Amino acid sequence: MKINNCDSLDCFFKETRNKIDPISIPLQKETIEFKFELYKNLLNLKYDLNFNLNKEQFSALNKYVKEKPFKVVECDKNIGIGLISHENYNKLAIDHLNKPEFYLKIANDPLNDVKEFINNVLRELCYRKDISKSLLKKLLIDNGQLGNFRVLT
């Protein structure tokens, strides 16, 4: 290995990736005894397999997880949760987003300008050799997304 010749983390990770053999790492006797005791205790554990859901409730929960026929939303004023159909949720969201007293309508998407600015700064840092090309590839923004929107009912 040429670890001593590495001057960056990228080089170090590249040189050490998949080169360490776990068998060659020395283990102390206490470590081996601890592993043995741990496995022995895990075998002796008794699990209580009584579930708090019956089969019908469990299948209904599985059906919801797979199909998601409605949306579970937070209620305003910390009252709890509410159930709402996807169509009604989308209608409420669009109605709320179109209210001019809450949101200002903008002509263009500022996210594109911000992405371009960040990418230009990153390219400049790479050009000045402040960051490596591999780090640049990891940090460049390809398709940024805005945060999530949610409606409180």
UniProtKB/TrEMBL annotation:
It comes from the Eukaryota. This is Uncharacterized protein.
